[in-house]
Amino acid sequence: MHRLxxxxxxxxxxxxxxxxxxxxxxxxxxxxxxxxSTMNEQARDRILEDSRWLIAEITSDGLDSAxxxxxxxxxHTGSTAxxxxxxxxxxxxxxxxxxxxxxxxxxxxxxxxSEVHDVELSAGKNHELWGQGTKLEDGSxxxxxxxxxxxxxxxxxxxxxxxxxxxxxxxxASIAGFIASRGFLRRIDAIxxxxxxxxxxxxxxxxxVRGTYDEMDRLSANLNRLFDSNQSLLESLTQVTTNxxxxxxSPLSRLWHGLEGSRAARSTKKSYExxxxxAIVECRQLLKTFSGLLRIAEIESGSLKTxxxxxxxxxxxxxxxxxxxxxxxxHNKKLCASITPxxxxxxxxxxxxxxxxxxxxxxxxxxxxxTEINLSLTRDGQYIVAEIADSGEGIPAEEREKVFERFxxxxxxxxxxxxxxxxxxxxxxxxxxxxxxxxxxxxxxxRAVIRFPACPDSATxxxx
Amino acid sequence: MSQDDLKTQLTVRxxxxxxxxxxxxxxxxxxxxxxxxxxxxxxxxxxxxxxxLKQHDYVTEHVSNGKVGLFLAAREDYDVLIIxxxxxxxxxxxIVKMLRATGHQAPAIFLTTMSGINDxxxxxxxxxxxxxxxxxxxxxxLARITALLRRPPMSEVGRILxxxxxxxxxxxxxxxxxxxxxxxxPQEFRLLEYxxxxxxxxxTRAMLxxxxxxxxxxxxxSVVETHISRLxxxxxxxxxxxxxxxxxxVGYCLHVDA
Lengths: 464, 258
Known about the structure:
The structure holds 2 protein chains of 2 kinds.
Chain A: H1 2-6, H2 8-61, H3 63-76, E1 81-86, E2 92-95, E3 105-109, H4 119-123, E4 129-135, E5 141-147, H5 149-199, H6 215-264, H7 269-300, E6 309-312, H8 313-330, E7 334-339, E8 344-347, H9 349-365, E9 372-380, E10 383-390, H10 422-432, E11 437-441, E12 446-453
Parallel strand pairs in A: 7-9
Antiparallel strand pairs in A: 1-2, 1-5, 3-4, 4-5, 6-8, 9-10, 10-12, 11-12
Helix pairs in contact in A: 2-3, 2-5, 6-7, 7-10, 8-9, 9-10
Chain B: H1 3-27, E1 35-39, H2 43-55, E2 59-63, H3 66-75, E3 80-84, H4 92-101, E4 108-112, H5 119-125, E5 130-133, H6 138-149, H7 151-155, E6 160-163, E7 166-169, E8 174-177, E9 180-182, H8 186-197, E10 202-204, H9 205-211, H10 223-236, E11 244-247, E12 251-254
Parallel strand pairs in B: 1-2, 1-3, 3-4, 4-5
Antiparallel strand pairs in B: 6-7, 7-8, 8-9, 10-12, 11-12
């Protein structure tokens, strides 16, 4: 309950209920004041009208006529009308009040018990006598009045019903707020429980999603995606750390053994120099590996997405072909390209260049002589499809996913020099662009396929 | 071409080029009294650089504080500034920005461990002329300093470039040697243009990758060697003297006999 009172939605509900009640009260107060003043006005008008009528009668027909009139009225009207008529000597002539001291003007409110002859009136409770007294020229006195009990009762009833409605409205608003908060709280709790579980190391926990596509659902889905990427980052971190430890061990031991071996042997200056040169080459290779790892890490962090822009991917692939056709030829292979001009995607040109370079280099380095490598870039509806296909030995289906792991090498290519990072980097670049490198069987050989979403105006706009 | 083939080829070339290399290094010696300011707080790195520069007869001054470095660079007239990016007092990026903002045009080269993808661009945007990631071979730094020292003629915009009997027309995109037209692929043309602009200076493999092919990474295949050997066949084969030479362990040089 305490926590409930702390939730912002509950507080909001209470505030809204209060504002609602306040507005409601203001409205009802205005209604009450108008209604009751109209009712009072009407009662007063009736009394004054009656009084004027009787005075006119007294003036024209004399006291006796008025007296019989009053008697008749008392017979016919209900018990709420009150009259009193006295002559010039103060003697009561007619009326249902015992005695009344002559006065002139309007009088409301309590009358002395001696003035009224009525059980209920004198009891006072909710009974009130309003009336007009008139002293006539001959000394006689007329009082016309009314017990406003029914008006008072009506007003009280209005006040009561208003109080109830405000109370109920407030209660309903609060309960609704309470229920809404509890639902909200439960979903927040689910998020909290999941987050705590993940902090404690249960990385596979996820927030349940209801499928209602409301804000909470979208929040949960987003957090789940965050947890997904967190999990895969942690897993890749573990994998990378382990692989680095393993894979840096061999060049480091080569370095060490080379230096130690040359020191132990009775060597000439020349062989010392050779050993130093070999050590420098080994260091360079190590540094290159480190640069590769750092670059992959930088790409995978996703921070480079901020510099994405409309990039002419046709130009990028053409550049790769222009540079590598000769390189492939030197390796006794053939690089053929078929590139649709003026295709654009949203991305980073330099990184895409490196991705294609790595894929082409991979094809050049890991295929037998006289292999044909085909590089193509085509448009397929909303996609731009890049393919790098070779007729080499290909990659066994079960190993296709693994080749993107850092330092992973197929058995047959273990002897080929290289960092083992080329495909990881290509895959990281593709991942940064929100796409994947699909590896397929080219019968024979390997076909790498990347499907980029095209920039909307691709191939329709002139060069930029 | 396998790695071994490449090695054999390189060894043959090395023997041939050793003599040329020695001559080249001698030639690459700075014009008298070329002064270099090194702003570097890492003592061992600074010693390594100073030692090397001294061997090549450069006049060097070294400071390890960024503010002092800025003061010196602004007051004295240096031929090249070598600046670490991360320094006590004032970082290298700010030093170069301030120098450029106040009209100091001395060529500057950044030395840095910051090898992030956008770091190089940032450094060059700040107004530096080159960017070298640590650790590096001294020969690499030396080649870059040499390239910077001869900056004024390099930035000249002329229609025809000359290197000995080699002539390059930048507008017509044609190359002639000894009056004979040489057909070049666009890649080879770019490579030759860079080499001519840096004639008689050693250019390293990394410099070629960065400036000719816009690589900001080290490829796994022999991109540079392939294009160099093709260019060499086209511009040297059948001509009396060898222009394009391999400088062992460092890079290449378009050597013009004086």
